[in-house]
User: Fold these one by one.
Assistant:
Number 1:
Amino acid sequence: MIDAEENRLVERCLSGDEKAFESIIDACENAIFNSIYRMIRRFDDAQDITQRVFIKVFENLKSFKSDYKLFSWIYRIAINETLNYINHQKPFNGLSDDLVDGSSPERDYDNQELEEKLQDALMELDPQYRILILLKHFQSFSYKEIAEILAIPEQKVKSRLFTARHCLKDILIRMEIISND
Amino acid sequence: MIEKQYIEFINYEIDGVVTPEQKRLLDDYLKSHPEAEKLYRQMIASSRVIENIPEIETPLQLKNRIMNAVFFKQLRHGSKSKRVGLIHWEWVFNPKSRIAFAYILGICTTLLLLVPFWLFEPPDQAMPNQNFYGHIGAEFLHELKPLKQIELNQPDFIGTIGFKQVDRVFIVELDINCDSQSELTLGYDPEYLQLVSIRPVQDKQKIEYTQSSIKLADSEAMHSLLFFLSTSGDLPHFSLTIIQAGVLLQQQNIEFNSESPMN
């Protein structure tokens, strides 16, 4: 979505056009939901948080500044909501995965097992690092966009991302998902 | 120890932002540093593995949930008159209400399943015998109807005599305290009534039967139920005689009026 298009959508939303808001949901619902799910690994809660995110978006559209990308701005709200959720939760015990609505029947067992292991590995990361891995590897944001979303300098994004990758690599080796050779 | 600069280059390559110059420097460095080369391979492998995680399918109803929630937010911020009528429906659209709905549905289903048991009446037992057949059943079609109550307030003879009817059965309820020389005689017309039983029969009571009367005497208390069966279906009449120490205290005919059952 290009900037001018985003601005028009926002204006339509502000004038009470529900279809415009639906378009925004269509454009980012999947990415937001997936990232939230990967962050917290609770399917129902991920839906609740996604809903809260879009309600906040709706309520705060007036304060949206067009010098940001709309998606980055929404993502920022999503990250904040997710971190709030994580901070109010008990430490993750690794057994509360209530997935697997998202799994398609044709996916074979090995893939599913690998996916669960990878999700386990992600959950071992500190949430601050997990976010960076998600933003970079799942949503392919640039360093600049990540810096906007997280409201931190670009240089910090890089150093944190490199640390996150290093930690993840060690976890994957320990879990024998990748080789140590 | 791997130089920090080359760790950055490795990350740039993973992110696809490495410049040709950085790439050349990195390749040269990796050739001469096996430790760095090992890290490079592991980092590339872990990135590829992570990128293989498939997307989770977003639930189909999520968008509707969001739109409903937004709709109700609009209502909240809208005029008060709009809110009054509709805001209470918000809970219907709340997905967490599903638990409440499921609970209510469960209770209703359970109640529906129990209805046949409540309405079920066991059939009368048929007697499978050629010479002895029929049904045994119990039914209570009529209520106990009070007909008359007589208050007795003679010296040393105090109490009540109640007359009640259920279907063709007439019940005389004696609830009397008296001295031991008292006699109470209840007369009836055997063409219309048949004495069936007395409950309970007290040991001390002296009961004398004739074809048309029953006399209770020499008892300090008369607390009994006398059961009569009507043979004609008409309202019967009784005669009551009370004698104490040989002196006639009370004698009266007792008749019943079907219009006003109890006096």
Note: Chain A touches chain B through 50 residues (CB under 8 Å).
Number 2:
Amino acid sequence: MTDHAWLDAAAPYALGALSAEERAAFEAHLADCAICRAEVQALREVSGLLAHAAAAATPAQALRDRILREARQVRPLTARRRSLRPWIAAAAVVLAIAAGVAYVKERGNRRALEQAVAAARDSLAAQQQLVATLLAPDVNTAVLASKGRPPSARVFWNPSRHRVVIAVFDLPPAPAGRTYQLWAIQTGKAPVSLGIFNTAPDGRLTTALDVPPALVAFDVTAVTEEPVGGSPQPTQQPFLVGKLSGGE
Amino acid sequence: MAAGDERALGELYDRRAATAYALAMAIVGERADAEEVVADAFGQVWRTSAQFDPARGSVPAWLATITRTRALDLLRARGRRARAIDRAAAVGDGGLAAPLAEPGDAPDRGVERDEARRLVTRSLAELPEPQRRVLELAYFGGLTQSEIAAALREPLGTVKTRMRAGLEKLRGSLAALLSEGRS
């Protein structure tokens, strides 16, 4: 069965309307299929709201007392005694503050914070890579220009690390479906791709690209605009070209 | 056990018990059984909350799933499921063990809950009858898709399609509630 056919089971599953055998088969599939998992999760949120369609009914006050009394006698399942059931704790705070939305906001904020921390960590690691690449004594540099007018770029090649850092200025982002590609050219040989890149809306970019280990010498770098994904060989005349110099 | 957790359970109860209880009533039909179901459901939430993963669903959806499952288990244990199926086949409109809310039902406590009930009831009422029916038979009646197909004398594929179409429409009409429940 294809994944698409499996998707037909998502709605009955979310409604709890699969037989035991059907459910077991679908759950086995769910373990491997992120598409169906996402669909089930979304549909389950919808089916969960059907509870609101039930005619209003209010439980006896004694029920609350009974549930709390029983909870006092049962230790929640948790391997570590001291691990708090985090969402309950979060819910307690949040429910006290406001209705509904708050829980989600808290969750969203935490997720956003985690993402920000991860992004900062990645960014720091990338910066360290850039600096390490730039500060080596044997770095070669090239200033790439287009007849003295913007855009321009600088390329720093660190042969021992097999990396280049490219810093680009005043280059508008490539149009939809296109990308920029950096080339290493050794006189008399075919250009070798050093990778693709795109600039930010402000026309700038600084990034590190890997140099193929087999490429131990080149004297010119150039930038072309290519279809997304890059090309094996340049398909147009480079609009930025620069000769490498330096290296001690 | 930390006192704060217990208080949290109390607050979760205050916020969600009425909806859970109404759902249990709609399925089991008797007050004492419905209270049993809600007590079981909150007991399960309490014991297994450490395993709850917010990334995989919201607390209300989780609680609704547990409550519904417990309610159907109780019906099964009482040997009353067969009757529910018969009724589903026999009754012309809806065929449910307990009446569902009508649009405009008397409100109960909790503004937010009223709002949710109003929206869900109205959205459900706006579905084409065949779609609404399969959703209700499955969710409140506890019938499997094959049982629904047999009861309605429709092909299984038709039942599946209606379930999917019904849920998709609700996903659209209840988008506001869904985005409240999940970021």
Note: The helical segments of chain A are 3-7, 10-14, 20-30, 34-49, 61-73, 86-97, 101-135.
